[in-house]
Structure formats: C-alpha cells, structure tokens
Amino acid sequence: MAISELKLPQGVSAHEFRSPVLLAEGLALKVAKQLSDAISERGTAVLVVSGGRSPVAFFQHLAKQTLDWANVVVSLADERWVPVEHPDSNAGLLKRYLLQGPAANAQFLSLYSAAANIERAAEHADRLLAELPSIDVLILGMGDDGHTASLFPKSPNLEEALKADGSRRCWPMLAPTVPHQRLSMSRALLASAKTTVLSISGQSKLTTLSAALAGDSVAEMPIRAFLQPTLEIYWCP
C-alpha cells in the first residue's frame, strides 16, 4: 500500500518519501521555513512537537537549520510524567537531539513539573500554556491504536480532552503502556495550530491511517480529530 492509494479528505495533502532520512530532511526544511516566516511576520515563532523515538532524525536535521533560534519557542504536544533525566522523558529527548548548538537558544516550555501528583502537574502545565503564543507549527505522530499526542483511546480524561471547544489546555492522561501517566495538550489547543503535520512511517501506520479514515468515532481513534483540511501528511515506507 502507498499513501497515494488512500482517499484523503478534501484539503489534506500527502507527501511520500523514499526513506526516513529523506522524510526527516524534507520535514526539517519545511518547518524551518514556516518558523522563519513567522518570525519575520511577528518577531517570534512557536513549534510544538511530539516525542518518542520516531522524530529523532527530524530533530537532528532541524537543529542544523539556520534560524533566529532565540525567537523560537518550543514545546511538546505530550510528555511522560518523569523527570528530564529519565530515559523516557520527551524533554530529555529534545535536549539531546534538537536543543543543541544554535538551537539551544530557543525557549523551551516544558509540560513536566515535580508536582505531588499527575493532576497537579497537569494544572501547572495548563497555567504555563496560557502564556504560550499561538502555535505556528505542530508536528504530530500516531500510534498503531490511533492515538496522537497522549490522547489515548479509553483514557479516563479522553472525553474532556477531546472537546473541540474545551478551554483547558493540558490534561492528565493514562497510556496503556509503561510509563502509564502522561500529560497531553488538549485537542482544542492542538487544533489551534496554523500548520499541522502528521509524520508517520511504515506500512503499519498506513494501515492505521486507513482505518482512521474509514470511521468517524474520535474517541475510538483520536487521530481522527486532526484529519481536517490543511493537514499535511509526511510518510515513508
């Protein structure tokens, strides 16, 4: 199966690359251009990315781009509730692979805090995100279960977190795998991004995307909330 074989909603565009390296390079060039344009327009740019191992090559290529990094704000669509030193920390991943060299001058807005519990941590992140300027570029990933960010099917707070008009920006979520506790930006905040890219690779993700396109229950497959016009999909085998 190729992404060109999928019937995408009107307005959704797809970009196919021959390898993960070429995808990472292409995505880095696109994002750097979008951020540069935002800085030219209003003096600052906001990038929100997803964690996990998949985007490492993209982070490394983006870090090499010539940008006015001091005027870029970087945050995460979701985070594991673990300290930055923990190997599962998305913040730690960013610090190792993106916030290096000139890119280290970017302002990083972390979702994690050493609060008494995950609910307090989410409340703290929600207050911080109230000061986040509008999101210029959002990079999403997708799990084989159709989750994106940490909006997992059957998570206790999913219904609230998926409200299109919700006012809360960050929710405590539960993942089906360890570590269970996560922090995730809400659908409403994520959907406010000016540019949204879904970056995926491999046949299994294409199969998941095909299943998502075939139904309409957002709670069953939260990625469906973002299969809207203006979405760009970057895929490689």
UniProtKB/TrEMBL annotation:
Catalytic activity: 6-phospho-D-glucono-1,5-lactone + H2O = 6-phospho-D-gluconate + H(+)
Transmembrane segments: none
Pathway linked to the protein: Carbohydrate degradation; pentose phosphate pathway; D-ribulose 5-phosphate from D-glucose 6-phosphate (oxidative stage): step 2/3
Enzyme class: hydrolase
Its EC number(s): 3.1.1.31
One of the GO biological process terms: carbohydrate metabolic process
Signal peptide coordinates: none
Domain of life per record: Bacteria
Pfam family, one: Glucosamine_iso
GO molecular function terms listed in the Swiss-Prot or TrEMBL record: 6-phosphogluconolactonase activity
Keywords: Hydrolase
Domain Glucosamine/galactosamine-6-phosphate isomerase: 22-235
Function: Hydrolysis of 6-phosphogluconolactone to 6-phosphogluconate.
Family as reported in the entry's similarity comment: Belongs to the glucosamine/galactosamine-6-phosphate isomerase family. 6-phosphogluconolactonase subfamily.
Protein name as annotated: 6-phosphogluconolactonase
Protein species of origin: Pseudomonas fluorescens
